[in-house]
Amino acid sequence: MAQNQALTAFAQKIAEKTPLSREAQNAFETIDRSLFIPSGLERLTYSLDALPIGAGQWISSPLTVAKMTSLLRVESADSVLEIGCGSGYQAAILSKLVRRVFTVERIERLLREARTRFKALDLHNINTRFGDGSDGWPQYAPFDRVLISCSIGGEVPKGLLDQLAIGGILVAPVGGVIRRFTKRSLGFREEDIEERAFVPLLSGTAPN
Ligand code: SAH
């Protein structure tokens, strides 16, 4: 199968399992997942599984990326913060749907590789930062959307909730359950969506 046919079939397979907007389905068709897959695992490029990317980390299952993306309910003018860039696949999908993406990663090597992929794909609206994502990225706050791509044991760090714009949405796996927070002028609306497995959020940056 030609590569673009494989990508179209892949995006369709995802959309059958996780309802997606037309724009989101297009993003899955446009961003070539093969660039995000470590060598040796090429045959699994269009599988729906999470795959190891080194440094003990994983590229999320495309179904998880689809689910998190649709829960965020992004709009094209949005500025989105992601915590846990990993391979960069989720950030790349978001970059096709919103104006600007900011993504933070605590493992430098993974971030370097993700940056190379963003360049190769000509994605110029993604800003990356090496650091502890628990602090968010105050210089660019407030964000219309915040996506936490690693699981949180206890509470969502307060700094991240503070960096969300009023009316903004934050999606995070908290204690094994995907939770969506919508910021109101006073407080938050909180919804529990479903259980799903994620890589944990750790503090500080990883040693080289
Ligand atoms: N979004 C990724 C999936 C990443 S898995 C993708 O599409 O491939 C979760 C990532 O969160 C891992 O790379 C892990 O290193 C990172 N992470 C964990 N704790 C973090 C923290 N405090 N700050 C930034 N990144 C963190």
What can you see in these coordinates?
This protein has 208 residues and is an alpha/beta fold. It has a single domain, classed as Vaccinia Virus protein VP39 (Rossmann fold, 3-Layer(aba) Sandwich). Helix content is 29%, strand content 26%. The chain is built from 6 helices and 9 strands. The protein has helices at residues 3-17, 22-30, 62-72, 89-95, 108-120, 158-162; strands at 51-54, 57-59, 79-83, 100-105, 126-130, 143-148, 164-174, 177-183, 188-195. The strands form 2 sheets. Strands 5-4-3-6-7-8-9 form a 7-stranded mixed sheet. The protein has a two-stranded antiparallel ribbon with strand order 1-2. A hairpin with a 2-residue loop joins strand 1 and strand 2 (57-59). Helix 1 (3-17) packs antiparallel against helix 2. The model has no long low-confidence stretch (mean pLDDT 94). The structure holds S-adenosyl-L-homocysteine. S-adenosyl-L-homocysteine binds at residues 57-60, 83-87, 89-90, 104-107, 110, 132-134, 149-150, 199, 201-203.
Average pLDDT works out at 94
N-to-C CA distance: 40 Å
Strand order of the largest sheet: 5-4-3-6-7-8-9
CATH superfamily membership, which one? Vaccinia Virus protein VP39
CATH-assigned fold name: Rossmann fold
Relative helix content: 25-40%
- How does the helix and strand content classify structurally? alpha/beta
What is the architecture at the second tier of CATH? Answer: 3-Layer(aba) Sandwich
Q: Report the portion of residues in β strands.
A: 25-35%
Report the bound ligands by name, code or SMILES. Answer: S-adenosyl-L-homocysteine
Number of domains: 1
- What's the tally of helices? 6
Largest sheet: 7 strands, mixed
Rg (CA only) = 16 Å
What is the count of β-strands? 9
Q: Stretches where pLDDT falls below 50 for ≥5 residues?
A: none
